[in-house]
Design a protein that fits this description.
CATH topology of the largest domain: Rossmann fold
Structural class: alpha/beta
CATH architecture of the largest domain: 3-Layer(aba) Sandwich
Oligomer: single chain
Radius of gyration: 22 Å
Number of strands: 11
Bound molecules: 6-O-phosphono-beta-D-fructofuranose
Number of helices: 10
Distance between the termini: 61 Å
Strand order of the largest sheet: 3-2-1-4-5-10-11
Amino acid sequence: MDRKIAVLTSGGDAPGLNAAIRAVVRAAYHYEYKVLGVKRGYKGLIEKDFCYLNPRDVGLIINRGGTILLTSREPRFKEYEYRKKAIENLKEEGVEALFVIGGNGSFQAANLLVKEFNFPVIGIPKTIDNDTYGTDYTIGFDTAVNNAVDAIDKIRDTTMSHERVFVVEVMGRDSGFIALEAGIASGADVILIPEYPFPMHVIVDTVIKSRERGKRFSIIVVAEGVASAKDVAQVLEEKLKPYDFGGVRYSVLGYIQRGGSPTAYDRNMASRFGVFAVEEYKKGNKNFMVAYEKGEVVSKPLDVSFGKIKKPDLKEFELGNILSL
Ligand code: F6P
């Protein structure tokens, strides 16, 4: 086994990263490559923080959240001299290709290694936000949605018992995928996402009308990219003062969405993505991103997602509205 590849995780962690690392390592060994693990993403590339991973080293991790390789957002990688150092370090170890399990930002950094040093790079998409253009799915999304639904189910008990209006803020820096899917699955009355904005008076009207139709409590799910739950709750409190609605409360779900054991779906998608990445590379494909499209795992040019915005399907958004009656 003379050939070597390297793997790293970069950017925010997402449930399923370990399953992806495991898949890359085991597929690599299956096809007779050694695997160098890089610690803390691009930081480890610069600092030569490496560890060899064999199939046994990635045992007992498929069910674990976070990443055994650790992760970071490394500002030094924006500078050419550090990228050059990173490539020197990889070459010194005899590594022939770098597998980056990351999001859009990590792929942009990886693409510079291709452009400047002609170093082969393969991207495996992860982010709980599911907002990477070019792929229908990113590792971690399903677990984040399930974590949010689990929390909203609990919040519903209090909301229902006190007949309140409750605003729940979920993650999604610039996107509403988590809010939309978690909102539909938890029967939210209003789902606020940046891609299809609602004016505040529509939200107030929706709550009032739902009470008129006999609903005794309301749940509003808001993506962090739209507004904070606190701000939405404050406005609602003010506007709903004339009504006897049991009060308005809010919760920010935050990082509990990003942690915990990955769902079976995330474990399996991460496993498929990892094995596919290695198999494609073995066939001679390089500088590509693994993508999920219409139910199939495919490869796309690494830069396919750059500068593009992935939006949830309008039909899915309408579905949420129809069901909130
Ligand atoms: O992109 C994933 C995400 O969890 C976003 O939803 C969130 O805004 C962001 O990362 C927070 O990242 P961090 O606190 O790790 O910088």
